[in-house]
Amino acid sequence: MHKITADWICPVSSEPLENAVVITDNTGKILAIESREQHDPTSLETYLGILVPGFINTHCHLELSHMKGKVDTGTGLIPFITGVVTQRNASAEIIAEAIEKAEQEMLDGGIVALGDISNTPDTFATKAKGRMRYHTFLELFDFLQDAGAEKTFADGLAVYEQLELVPGSAGSLVPHAPYSVSKSLFEKINAFNPKSNIAVSIHNQETPPEEDLFLEKKGAFLEFYGKFGISLDQFKATGNSSIYYALTHMNPANQTIFVHNTLTSRKNIEAAQAWSPHTFWATCPNANLYIENRLPDYSAFLNTQARVTIGTDSLTSNWQLSVLEEMKTIARYQSYVPFSSLLRWATLNGAQALGFDDTLGSLEVGKTPGILLIQGVSPDWKLGMGARVKRVI
Ligand SMILES: [Zn+2]
After folding, report:
1. Which pTM does this prediction carry?
2. Exposure string for 51-62, b = 16+ CB within 10 A, e = fewer
3. How confident is the model over 332-357, as pLDDT tens digits?
């Protein structure tokens, strides 16, 4: 049994508690949260700082970990994708070793669950070890080619069947992005996934050319597709932002995680929330700075009560895989976002998005959420740039 106390305890599902004690069994399951006066001080593990639940990382591509530092920063999404497509090949040993190392980095940084995008089975051996709770988003794209949807789907299904053999690993098929998935492929994905309550994701409104393509069938994506010899002759502009194409073709009964959202407006958020009450918005600020050197407008999300979650994206588009570093970046550039919101985004919202809130995401009796100590939050609840995290349970 553990009796743990610190200056503050932030259960996330309820208000912060001063001078409280979290009591867990040896597996980390929370048995009670009580006041410090009820306990002999010598029986307590006492820390300076605040105790919070384990972090949930809702967006990563663990299988791209071996590409750390290979793609330039600040060039924009299209050169970035080109870099990934042309440089992702490496030996199985190099890929496997980088995945293991990346998982360890996340565990050391207090991450207890991951929503992980996979195009290949490369991460499945690591996932089978069960050191973290995973939802694998088996991601499909056919470059907007309806004629290619059937083969893309069959190839993806073959990988998904291998995922089903991984003990305890949850998963779903997901579309990559509006600019890369045909209507036919959306239909096949919807027909395959459970009809409700399963987590799915899609990269959303990440770069201005994505909007140019859907609004006017113009811009850098036409050039990108041309370079790879892919015809967009059959593609028609919808005259609307890319997110509306996703809303038209995804299933509103599932938990949909829109990822990146650097160009998403208040109107777009409201439209998505009217489409489905199960919408989540994964933000990956460091990847946004790495790739496009821009950030979402977080006020639009706060003003619409949007359920924001945090993702690190992959080591191809980030300097590290740390939820705390993502929180610090938001605190640095848009400091009006309260610490309480950042913490909820980093924990409970992510657990709900992935369907893991039965055990994770908040300090509540009966859960086994992992317990983290954060140091470096000021008395007026500002996250300092020197803040650090360590896993206590
Ligand atoms: Zn991504």
Report:
1. 0.98
2. bbbbbbbbbbbb
3. 999 999 999 999 999 999 999 999 99
